[in-house]
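Input record, target 12 of the design panel.
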């Protein structure tokens, strides 16, 4: 077992990095929302289809990765 001890400065930097990432995500979400509000209905349906396709593809990839890792761990046992 490996234990990691972080200094107070390290913890502050980690928290600041997380906050910056969240800020960037919020800004990106706002920008996407603003752009979506400008689109006509038919394009919104295409975008929804693309988002659902992308999510399914991502989930499939994650499931494959988990399956491969599980098999590797089972081989070690």
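The sequence produced for target 12 reads:
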């Amino acid at each position: 077992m490996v234990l990691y001890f972080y200094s107070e400065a390290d913890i502050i930097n980690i928290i600041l990095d997380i906050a910056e990432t969240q800020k960037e995500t919020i800004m990106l979400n706002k920008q996407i929302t603003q752009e979506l509000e400008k689109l006509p209905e038919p394009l919104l349906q295409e975008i929804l289809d693309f988002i659902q396709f992308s999510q399914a593809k991502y989930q499939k990839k994650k499931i494959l990765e988990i399956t491969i890792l599980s098999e590797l761990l089972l081989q070690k046992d």
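The chain has two helices and no strands.
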